[in-house]
Amino acid sequence: MSVNVQPGSEPFSHLGDPHGVLVLHGFTGNPASMRSIAERCAEAGYSVELPRLAGHGTSVEDLMTTTWRDWLSDAERAYDELAVRCDAVAVVGLSMGGGLAARVAELRPVAGCVFINPLVKPPPVEFTEGIDALLASGMTSFDSIGSDIKRDGGVENSYAATPLVPLKSLFAGIATVSEDLARIGSPSLVIVSREDHVITWDRADEFIEKVTGPVERVWLDDSFHVATIDNDQALVESVTLDFLARVFA
């Protein structure tokens, strides 16, 4: 796997107080889309880990060699690093990072969860059947799902293509997440864009119904999928920090 990390895609780590925040980016993206919110958490005094998930922030070829298991291992490793030095850990995730955050919360104790346009429900079966058909035809990727940003000139530093085998692995992992959502008993904040061109089959309704902990949902009216770097960035960061302050209190 390549070690040539794209500028701006580096992981972020901060040693702060005994309250830890694990921040997770999305599929084909990298830490750049979550760096601002991670830095805001650090400025608030929290210990922070924002890992660069396997295969991301380098090349599509690298991503093609990875699966959900690799990304979840990275997330769990970062959580464990925080748990060693913190009394409590919260998780914050965008898109696939939201699905990973949910899985971490299903498997480990968390103080609270922030999900930003999260992928916590697999797509309709027709979608995965379409992936199988493309793979059978010899295709290995399709056009990028990144940079779904409403802000004029907004660009996500994501890959120009979406590899099919890792995507299929992602959906299989998310199916497990969806099955185990009742394990999440900690408070959750769900931040959802009203218009999202990446995750079109879910607005977290099923998530809210299945989890056993209290859930607050905030709607975004001026952002698309990558809301952490879109027009509502300031709102996303402020409601996240307010939520973290409450769950850590």
Q: How does this structure look, described?
A:
The protein is α/β, with parallel strands linked by helices. It contains eight helices and nine strands. The chain has helices at 35-43, 60-63, 68-85, 96-107, 125-136, 164-179, 205-210, 233-248; strands at 12-14, 19-24, 47-50, 88-94, 113-116, 141-143, 161-163, 188-193, 215-220. A seven-stranded mixed sheet has the order 1-3-2-4-5-8-9, with helices on both faces. It is globular. It starts with 11 loop residues before the first strand and ends with a helix.
- Write down how many β-strands occur, each being a DSSP E stretch of 2 or more residues: 9
How big a fraction of the residues is strand? 15-25%
Cα shape: globular
What is the architecture at the second tier of CATH? 3-Layer(aba) Sandwich
How would you summarize what this structure contains?
The chain is of the alpha/beta class. It has helices spanning 35-43, 60-63, 68-85, 96-107, 125-136, 164-179, 205-210, 233-248, and strands spanning 12-14, 19-24, 47-50, 88-94, 113-116, 141-143, 161-163, 188-193, 215-220.
